Amino acid sequence: MSAIIITLMSCNKNDNKVAAPTPTPKEITLQTSGTLGNYLVDKQNRTLYFFSDDPSGQDSCTGGCQAYWPIFNVDHLTADKLGDGLSLSDFGSVTSVSGRPQLTYKGWPLYYFAPLVNGTNVQESPGQTRGEGVNNEWFVAKPDYTIMQVNAQLLGHDGKNYKSDYTEGIGETTYFTDGNGLTLYTFKFDSLNTNKFTNSDFSNNNVWPIYETNKVVVPSTLDKTKFGSIMVFGRTQLTYNGWPLYHFGQDGQTRGLNKGISFPAPGYWPVPFADITPAPHN
Predict the structure, then answer these.
(1) Can you point out the beta strands (E) in 187-270?
(2) 163 and 249 part of one domain
(3) Structural domain tally of the chain?
(4) I need a labelling partner for 277 at 20 to 30 A (CA). Which of 30, 113, 114, 213 fits?
(5) Domain end: 106, 140, 174, which one?
(6) Can you give the residue range of the structural domain that contains 267?
(7) How much is the pTM?
(8) Is 7 in contact with 61 (CB distance < 8 Å)?
């Protein structure tokens, strides 16, 4: 009799065990590379990318581009579907060129890379980053860029279109923004590692705010050694090739605007770019 009771008690004890909840699959996580640092991957560890033609935050990959760079999307993304170090507030959605939803990260639309394999576009394998630097305009999606290289039409505060030489006309210019797509500028009267614009009390900083950072996280095609920082009345300003870097107040927090290129006249506040002439010593 006692043996039967023990057996029944044992069965009841096992029946009361609660199964462990199934972990929510992570749709997006961070991968780490010794050369590229942290970058975003999907749940299959496939690398995600930013496109330099998207500084406004809209998908600009048209025509044949779409076969090589398929859009990435996750329906109903929630915080528990993100890996460590990622915040739901940094993600959004836009309508892609193809009319489908496309996920964005910190305002940048996200893509895969699908190079040609035996004449057919095939998404690169998990763990690969072969899309980094393609055409000098595709870069792994990093969470901490302080500089991005973009291609866009220059459109001044006067409503006129400008070319790279600051004459009126149509044509994309390649230049730097910060990691959020906000345009950066140099001041033609500055000299090597010397800010000649900002007042000591920062009373004019709302017009041309200094770019306050000393972190250099850039696409792999750029030379990190050309970046530096200076102290401006107790605050840190990023430099490139000796040029102090600024934002323009009238651009505000709107991605892709570059109104400052014509203020107060074209060429006073040029945008920085990879091959810009080093700042003069005087």
Answers:
(1) 227-232, 235-240, 243-244
(2) yes
(3) 2
(4) 213
(5) 140
(6) 145-282
(7) 0.90
(8) no
